[in-house]
Amino acid sequence: LTSVAGAWMFRQQRLVGASLAILLLAMSAQQGSASQSAITHGYDDVEPLVARVFTSGESTNVAYFGQDHQLFTAALRFLDVERERALIRGDDLLEDAQQNLINGLHDFRVGWVFVDDELPIGQAVLEMIAEHQELFEVITPGQTLDNGEKTFHAQLFRFTGDLAAETKTVPLNSSVQGISASR
What is the per-residue pLDDT for 56? Predict the structure, then answer.
């Protein structure tokens, strides 16, 4: 009788253990699906926009004049597996070139320019581009990028002016934003 009772209790413990494991698994699956729906969707249109940089076959750098440079950096890194191009912050480019857009694009070998035209820096750059319109080809006159929580507007230009034979050293800090690579 004790062996039958012992076997019965052993089976009950296994069932309780298995039931708890199934319950925990179901709870974690539900939690996972809930957190998946809470994840912000990305800017799906950034990658195809950045992909246009690769149409010329040239390994020139990219400048972005706006606040959302990290989106363009991520898309460029994803698409440029050979790391032949750098994304240069437009505010730093202008500061380094003493507010001369053409010199900055030349020195940093920038062949592609993204501009957030809704920001003051973007509006200033558009004025500079208009002054030298013969050196710029409009690729995308304007595209709204939206992730469901934030939107911004971007334009893409191809710079057709002369580029330096060698790229000026790209700084690893941003004096404009107070970001330093040594911190």
Answer: 82
Write the pLDDT tens digit of every residue in 58-85. Answer: 899 999 999 988 889 889 999 999 999 9
Buried b (16+ CB within 10 A) or exposed e, 66-88: bebbebbbbbbeeebeeeebbbb
The answer for residues whose C-beta is within 8 angstroms of residue 160's C-beta and 6 or more apart is 135, 136, 137
Q: Which residue has the tokens 């912000």?
A: 40
H/E run at residue 30: helix 2-38
Whether residues 99 and 132 share a domain: the answer is yes
pLDDT reported for residue 161:
98
Residues 18 and 53 both lie in one domain: no
Cβ contact 123:71 at 8 Å: no
pLDDT tens digits along 3-20:
655 555 566 666 666 666
Residues 6+ apart with CB under 8 A from 70: none
d(CA 48, CA 3): 70
Within a domain: 112 = yes
